[in-house]
Design a protein that fits this description.
Blueprint (H helix, E strand, L loop, with lengths): L1 H14 L9 H8 L3 H13 L3 E2 L7 E2 L1 H23 L4 H14 L2 H19 L5 E3 H5 L5 E5 L1 E9 L2 E3 L10 E6 L2 E7 L3 E4 L6 E13 L2 E4 L1 E3 L2 E5 L4 E5 L6 E14 L4 E11 L1
Antiparallel strand pairs: 1-2, 3-14, 4-7, 5-6, 5-16, 7-8, 8-13, 9-10, 10-11, 10-15, 12-13, 14-15, 15-16
Helix pairs in contact: 2-3, 4-5, 4-6
Amino acid sequence: MLEVSKILRLRVLLSFLQPDESCTVTGISRTLDVTKQTISRIIMELEQEGLIDRSDVRHPKLTDVGYQVAQMYEEKISVSMNHLMYEGVSIDNAKHDAYFWALYNSENTMEVIRSSEKRVRVKYELRNQRKFNGLFLSQMLEDGEYTLPFIMYRENIKNGSNISILDDLFEHPCILIMKDKKGIIQLRSTRSIHHVEHGNDIIHCKITHIQYYDNGVFINAEKSGDSFAIPLDVLNFINMGKGMSQVFHGTVCCKMSWESRENQKGEATAFFTILL
């Protein structure tokens, strides 16, 4: 019951974003199908919170703070609705649940949803592109950070798998940072334990150096602490699947150097592949 009351308060607040004659007790009552007494009580509560200005009792309006709060919730609801509908939820259920998400999701959760919603929008716009490069993709992405799953593939299948052991030497997911139509993928290395092949010895490996392939040469990835930066432009994408099940695989060949606590060193090649 408390949740229903909070959602009703939110719907009343959002009603004032519509600059028309319906922003009255009677108009909002009619629109939301709630008694005028209930609407009047909610508006007075919103006034006490500094969100509504009732200096003109017949025509209450949002305060500056109220306008900012209402816009914030409107954006959260819009993003949540899009995300739910992309996942196959009906529009009625998506609209209903979006109010709960807007009220109760943490800002960290909303950032993940925003990132997902942006990716889905881009995937829809690219749905008819069979192949494209990272430069083409960067022109479509908005500024901000995107969390992206990735896989390190080995050059050849070994022991029935084409996933490289280098995959365990990085934190998942990676981060794509977009700014002014330029994309940088940040990979953060981490130490991992591996058994030495043909033996029982254990080594503690960590990536120390990465080179990515671009226009016929391998280029050193910029390093900052444990993080490596790879330009989005050097990846080549292929569109796999159809409809909402489409997955875009963006790949670049990388040479990676590693070392261990046991003073062992090595180098391996892998295909760094992000999934969009």
